[in-house]
Amino acid sequence: MNLKRGVSITLGANIVFAFSQWVIIAGLNHLGSVEDVGRYAYSITLAGFFLTVGQMGLRQYLLSHSACSNHLEQAMSARVLTSFLAWFVLVIYASVSVDHSYFYLVLLLGLAKFVENISDIAHGLYQRNLKIAEIAYSRYGRSFWTPLVFLGIFYLTASITWACIGLIVCWGVLFAKYDRPALLVQKQAPLNKTPLLEMLKRSTPLGITNVLVLLAVSLPLFLLAEFVTDVELGQYASVFYFVTAASLILQSVLQVVSPVLVTHLSKGEQVAAKRLVVYSYLLAGSYGVFGVAAAMLIGEWVVAFIYGDQFVGLGYLTVLAATINFALSIQAVGGIVLTAHGVFNYQMYVMVLSVIVSAVGGYLLIASYGLAGAFYAGALTALVNALLFGIRVALEIQHNEKNTCLTHHQ
């Protein structure tokens, strides 16, 4: 596969997809209120956390050299089963702990995330087979129809609940059109308990890591909700979507780099693998620095223009958000490199530490600095992760080079 072509295909799709996420948040700000953004952000973050548990790290596992053909054939069955169980647990949790005003919104967004999980594993099957263009087409379709359906229904009904119902239907139709053909690219076998359980056992560290990543990123939002009003919560969510959108753009590179890196490692091409890792880090670093510079220059104008007068004076938050994006970009490269090398448990242990840093740092910083403290906590957590991932990546590369030298001498 041509790396540049693959990146260019997904770059366009992910830029459009990132823009569509902004359209939803900006649309809620303009058609509704900042409070609506806060309710939506809190509900989708909570639902997303539980459904991320349901992902069980399966997509990342499919992109490691550990995944065999028997596992690939059980991927969809495993994802449907684990996602349903995760949604069921979400229902129980929401019944006990979630405020009545959020209850139905959380459950509906959980169903939407269930459908998204099914599309995600289909994308993993495409990715494993280097069918990158198919992922891009799916992204384009979702980018166009999601804001159109969600905001269109919200405009007609003034109800986020009805908008979320429309979202579920929309994503179901998009799966049938764009993602279901992945099951033809990678044939799926009838459910077989033995390889399915074996695959889930191996992917569990990655699944736990994903949950911990999301928890570490989401904790500032949950902690902030205890200290501030829905308006400030909406302001945080609106600005933080810059981080979400920026990370989607970087995925354009990483979802192409990942299978190529696995191929190099499987063939023992250590020099090519190292070169790809170095280029990926340089790209991520440059991308992060560019984001910080752009936020410093035009951040104030951008948030006021996109979100309205309630965001005047909050430009400094975009600089903090860009700093988080810089650290997350470096962390993301480390994550895909370690996954390609089959280093799963280490990532899990790092993310356990990350959650502790996010929780303790988030509480102290939010208590001291309010809204800005949530961004400080996010930046601190991501920087710690990036550093620890980078150290292990360097050790893995050094280990591979040493083994290569020993092989040549023999």
TrEMBL record:
Pfam families noted in UniProt: Polysacc_synt
Membrane topology: Multi-pass membrane protein
Keywords on record: Cell membrane, Membrane, Transmembrane, Transmembrane helix
Compartments, record wording: Cell membrane
A single cellular component GO annotation: plasma membrane
Transmembrane portions of the chain: 7-28, 40-58, 78-96, 147-174, 206-227, 239-261, 281-307, 314-340, 346-366, 373-395
Signal peptide: none
Keyword Membrane: yes
Keyword Iron-sulfur: no
InterPro entries with a match to the protein in the record: Poly_Biosynth_Transport, Polysacc_synth
Major place of residence: membrane
PANTHER family in the cross-refs: O-ANTIGEN TRANSPORTER-RELATED, PST FAMILY PREDICTED COLANIC ACID TRANSPORTER
UniProt-recorded name of the protein: Membrane protein involved in the export of O-antigen and teichoic acid
Record organism: Neiella marina
